[in-house]
Amino acid sequence: MDRESREMLLETAGRLFADRSGKEVVNAVEKGEWPAGLWSEITDMGLPLVAVPEAAGGADGTLADLLALLRLSGSHAVPVPLMETALANLVLAAAGGVPVEGPAALIAGGLTLAGGKVSGTAKRVAFAGVAAQFVAVIGVGPAARVVVLDRSSAKVAVEPSFAGEPYGSAQFEGAAPVQNLASPVSEVRLRELAALARAMQMAGAADRALAITVEYCKQRSQFGRPISNFQAIQHLLAELASCVAATVAAAEAASRDASEVGIGSGAEFSIAAAKTQASEFAQRIAAMAHQSMGAMGFTQEHVLHHYTRRLWVWRRDWGSETEWGAELGAAVARAGAETLWPTLTSSRFAA
Asked: Which site from 3, 20, 36, 248 is most exposed, i.e. has the minimal number of CB atoms within 10 Å?
């Protein structure tokens, strides 16, 4: 998809998210209501197929197009499994499969495949509570398989996330997949791609939290002047902006690197760095945003919590900063001490 087409896609999707994924819809999801209308419009627009080849019924977009769309969805707190379904369709298309029917949940880990049957339990699966199908990659290397499992074959225990979205566990006992294909994407790689996708959503949410906070501080007056004029608030906003900028920059750099190498392998260091950065700053961004807005930021009526609570949840999704930081350290240790400084100061990471 060329730049003009991507801009048109994002502009159209942005209008849809703004019009159909407002405060009432997000709050309703947190009360257990599935936004059928929103999901229908998202699928009618073809967003879950954005990175699927045209020959397979998709929009013929790239991984970069998908990641840009996911950043936009994060900036609107879109409470549906767009990331999970779109990434599942991308992986299936790469394996020669067909897109999923309905909203999907992604799984990488916890399952085994033997004799054509799937068994095991996947925990803390995003949107397990509303998924019509589960898409899992099992195994690594040439043995990797991507399987699609109908909801009827799963025993789902719904455990809503702190943001109120229908997370949960999915248990399978000798389940027969409706698709079972050799996958160019390994179980490890799916985790990396999902972590990158989540980092992009976190970048969008962090950027929106900053915008909300700055606007509030400009409008809120105390002692006859906007609180944004007070030095303490200015320092807080400056630190908040720097954390958001670092989160966005790391996510965008990883998106660029992953888009250049494709979904099969590569950009592991950038992805690990992006998820580490996003997860590490999630708590600080949320804390500073709420602190800047005072009591108003803590009310249920304000929309700030739609973004900060998702940052808290997404911080753990597909690996926390501790897990990805350990992988970064292990990668540097394997490469040797002499590679650390050249890597950190290379144009790719210093930009």
From this structure: 3
Calpha distance 95→147 (Å, rounded): 10
Claim: this prediction has a pTM higher than 0.90: yes
Give the chain's domains with CATH numbers. 3-182 (2.40.110.10), 187-350 (1.20.140.10)
Dist. CA 305–CA 253, nearest whole Å: 27
Alpha-helix runs per DSSP H in the chain: 3-20, 23-30, 36-44, 63-74, 82-94, 187-219, 231-261, 268-293, 304-316, 321-335, 340-345, 347-350
Task: Output the DSSP codes for 15-71.
Answer: HHHHHHS-HHHHHHHHTT---HHHHHHHHHTTGGGTTS-GGGTS----HHHHHHHHH
d(CA 180, CA 138): 10
Spatial neighbors of 164 by CB under 8 A, at least 6 apart, are: 29, 30, 31, 309
Q: How far apart are CA 108 and CA 129, in angstroms?
A: 17
Task: Round to whole Å and give the CA distance between 299 and 277.
Answer: 28
Provide the β-strand partners of residue 137. Answer: 146
The number of beta carbons lying within 10 Å of the beta carbon of residue 117 is 16
CA 81 – CA 58 distance, rounded (Å): 18
Task: List, for residues 176-208, the tens digit of each pLDDT value.
Answer: 999 999 999 999 999 999 999 999 999 999 999
| Nearest CA among 70, 89, 90 for reference residue 80 | 70
CB-CB contact of 49 with 105 (8 Å): no
For residue 231, what are the contacts with CB-CB under 8 A and spacing of at least 6? none
Sequence-distant (6+) residues with CB within 8 A of 225 are: none
Structure token pair of residue 135: 């898409």
pLDDT digits over 144-176, tens only? 999 999 999 999 999 999 999 999 999 999 999
